[in-house]
């Protein structure tokens, strides 16, 4: 069935540029965007069976968020990390919780609540880590299909530096998982498996290599963690006797166009060049990086080097499923980095091109188009280009209980400036209450109005 959405529309057209289209019309046929053009009341003649949604003055249509890195089984642990940092956090909090997903009833309960919470926050695509368990991770895929979350779903492969109950580094388990996934969604349009070695220390080199070969044979993407914590980096270099963390993955054949590297905080320039050369994507996880005191990733530098960068909530090292809050943290932490660097670099108004500070356009673009690029899904989703699928949210800056107060005295009179004013308020003050409607694959899946 055809659907019109009429009003103000905002989307990223480049990784550093949002386009604001005032008084526009989007026409969606089934799940595909067929038209995006200025709206003319006089020429508008919808047919009786077509749905028409008029946005109000305080609303705008925005692409659904893409969460490029989230651990579904860790959802019960959000906010619970105490004083830990990465390596002791894994042992103390994370592994015991992940072990509980041997029981499929935990998977059903946790995963259904997680997906509901994500959709409510405007996330329409996620790259998930499950656990080592094939049945629980298949359950995650089934719930994504049922609840309408687009996603990549990874069975986590790990066999070292973990309790015995989380040890399954067998490629046979991965093959079994992939085959079950192919039966669930043969086209892979909504859910698709993704090869997921937890991180280098979790696997023997031969296993990493085997996973690289499997990804190649099955034409699947890969996700893993890299350069998150200084002790972790030192440990990896000792374990594998390599020059750098990225070299381990490169030698195992894991650095490819469809590879999502989470964190990538402390990269050397050689690693940055290697990631660029291999065309891998980076998942920037600012909430997690702050919570576990891992560091501040120099994202602006990555964007200048034209790396593909998206945002990841990294639940539960990150405390929130909200990609919007991660966009805000990306902005705030980038400003702290500029402040730190300005002591040595002398950054001032005349030297802005050296600044590490992100713009609102860059942060919201990473949350959508950048994320789609990182997941190699930018031909399908990420913005409202004709031919893409409609994954979108209606944002209302003045929704019920909104945290945002709008004052007429400071509201710009020009329409484009007004929408930009709303965008700034949303990214710095907004939350799930401002996301009043969510569409996935053309279907309305959340409606609060
Ligand atoms: N490195 C290896 N496993 C994990 C994980 O579960 N979360 C984070 N943030 N880093 C990791
Ligand atoms: Fe992670």
From TrEMBL:
**Pathway named in the protein's UniProt entry:** Purine metabolism; guanine degradation; xanthine from guanine: step 1/1
What positions does the domain Amidohydrolase-related occupy? 60-445
Q: Record's Pfam families?
A: Amidohydro_1
Q: Would the keyword Cytoplasm be found if you checked this record's keyword annotation?
A: no
Enzyme Commission code(s) on record? 3.5.4.3
The organism's taxonomic lineage, starting at the top = Eukaryota, Fungi, Dikarya, Ascomycota, Saccharomycotina
Query: Keywords for this entry?
Result: Hydrolase, Metal-binding, Zinc
Q: Spell out the protein name for this chain.
A: Guanine deaminase
Organism name? Starmerella bacillaris
Q: Which cofactor does it need?
A: Zn(2+)
Q: Which Gene3D superfamilies match?
A: Metal-dependent hydrolases, Urease, subunit C, domain 1
Q: How is the cofactor bound?
A: Binds 1 zinc ion per subunit.
Q: Where are the transmembrane segments?
A: none
Catalysed reaction equations from the record: guanine + H2O + H(+) = xanthine + NH4(+)
Q: Name the family the entry cites.
A: Belongs to the metallo-dependent hydrolases superfamily. ATZ/TRZ family.
